[in-house]
Write a structure and sequence with these properties.
The protein has 11 helices and 15 strands. The strands form 3 sheets. The chain has a 6-stranded mixed beta sheet, sandwiched between helices. Helices cover 32% and strands 24% of the residues. It starts with 22 loop residues before the first strand and ends with a helix. With 326 residues, the protein is α/β, with parallel strands linked by helices.
Length: 326
C-alpha cells in the first residue's frame, strides 16, 4: 500500500491525506508458548472514528493494542497504522500517535510538570531543549486540558491513582495527534474525572483525530464511541458502527397503552407478534413496521399513549457476544 510519507505531515491537519482506515490488522496472532493471547484478529479502525475495544479480562485487548503500537511483535499476521507496516515503521508512525497503555510510569520524586517536561523534550514533533518556551507552553496546555494545572508542582509520588492517570493522558496529548490510543483511561478516576476524559475524547473526535479506547465501562463506551470492537478469548467476535450493532437484534416497538389485552388481540389478528409488558406492549417489527403496528392498534380502538423503538443496550449486546459457550 502506498502512502504519503509521515515525515511531511504534522498533526491532525494532515489526516485528510492519510489512507483509510487509520489502522488495520489481518490474521493477527500472538502466542506466549502454548498460550494464545490473540488469534486471527482482523481489526479495522476507520479514520476519524472513536473505536471502543470491549472484552472480558484476558480477552486480548491490551495485547492487540500493544501490537498496533509496535510494542509487541505479532507471532503471525500483519499490522498497519496510517498504511505503514508495524513494527517496522514505528519510528516513522509513532510521533503521530499518542498512547496511554497499561498505566503511566513517571519519576516519583519529580513534579507532574517536571515529568511532563521530560516527556516533551523527547517528543520528535517538539523543538527539544532549543525551544524551552514552546515546550513549557505545550506542557502547561496539556496539564490544564486534563485538569492537573493546580497540581503541576506536586511530586508524582503524592498523586492519587486518578491523578497519575490524568498525567499519563496529558503525556499522550502534548502535541496534536492523528491517532490517540487509551487503554482504560478512566481507571481510578472519580465521576468528575471520568466526565473530563469523555470531554477530551469528544474534543479529539471533533478535531478529526482517530481515537481507540479500551474500557470496561460500557456506559462510557456507549456515550463516547462511534464504533465498537468486541473481543473474547483472543478473538474478535464483532466490530462495526455502534449504532448498527445495537440495531442488529430483532427490532421492537414499545407501546404504552392501558388496553393491553385488546391491543394483543388486534396485533395477533393482523399477524403481528407481540407480548404484554408492564405499562403496555412490546411489538416485534419483523413482519411489519412501526407506523403499521400503531395504525392497527388505533383502528381497533386501542389507546396509544406513546410508541418508541427499543434498541439493544450495549450491556445486553456485550453479554450476548462474550458469554461462555455451553
Amino acid at each position: 500500500m502506498t502512502s504519503v510519507p509521515l515525515a511531511a505531515r504534522h498533526g491532525v491537519g494532515a489526516a485528510e491525506a492519510a489512507p483509510t482506515p487509520a489502522a488495520r490488522t489481518a490474521g493477527l496472532r500472538k502466542a506466549y508458548g502454548d498460550t494464545i493471547a490473540v488469534d486471527g484478529v482482523d481489526l479495522l479502525v476507520p479514520e476519524g472514528a472513536v473505536l471502543g475495544m470491549l472484552g472480558p479480562n484476558g480477552s486480548g485487548k491490551t495485547t492487540t493494542i500493544r501490537m498496533l503500537l509496535g510494542l509487541t511483535a505479532p507471532t503471525a499476521g500483519t499490522v498497519e497504522v496510517f498504511g505503514r507496516p508495524m513494527p517496522d515503521a514505528a519510528a516513522e508512525v509513532l510521533p503521530f500517535v499518542g498512547a496511554l497503555v497499561e498505566g503511566p510510569g513517571f519519576h516519583p520524586f519529580l513534579s507532574g510538570r517536571e515529568n511532563l517536561l521530560r516527556c516533551a523534550m523527547a517528543e520528535p514533533l517538539l523543538p527539544g531543549r532549543a525551544g524551552q518556551r514552546q515546550l513549557r507552553l505545550a506542557v502547561d496546555d496539556a496539564l490544564e486540558r486534563v485538569g492537573l494545572g493546580h497540581a503541576a508542582t506536586r511530586r508524582y509520588r503524592g498523586y492519587s491513582l486518578g491523578m497519575k492517570q490524568r498525567l499519563g493522558l496529558a503525556a499522550a496529548l502534548l502535541v496534536p495527534r492523528r491517532m490517540v490510543v487509551l487503554d482504560e483511561p478512566t481507571n481510578g478516576l472519580d465521576p468528575a474525572g471520568t466526565r473530563e476524559v469523555r470531554q477530551v475524547v469528544a474534543q479529539l473526535h471533533a478535531a478529526g483525530t482517530t481515537v481507540v479506547v479500551s474500557s470496561h465501562l460500557l456506559s462510557e463506551i456507549e456515550a463516547t464511541c462511534t464504533h465498537v470492537a468486541v473481543m473474547n478469548r483472543g478473538s474478535l467476535v464483532a466490530q462495526g458502527e455502534l449504532a448498527d450493532l445495537l440495531d442488529a437484534g430483532t427490532p421492537t416497538l414499545e407501546v404504552s397503552t392501558p388496553d393491553r389485552e385488546a391491543g394483543l388481540d388486534a396485533l395477533r389478528a393482523a399477524g403481528v407478534a407481540a407480548r404484554a409488558e408492564p405499562g403496555g406492549l412490546l411489538v416485534e417489527l419483523t413482519g411489519t413496521d412501526a407506523p403499521s403496528a400503531v395504525a392497527t392498534l388505533v383502528r381497533a380502538g386501542v389507546a396509544v399513549h406513546e410508541a418508541r423503538r427499543r434498541r439493544t443496550g450495549l450491556e445486553e449486546l456485550f453479554a450476548r457476544l462474550t458469554e461462555d459457550e455451553r
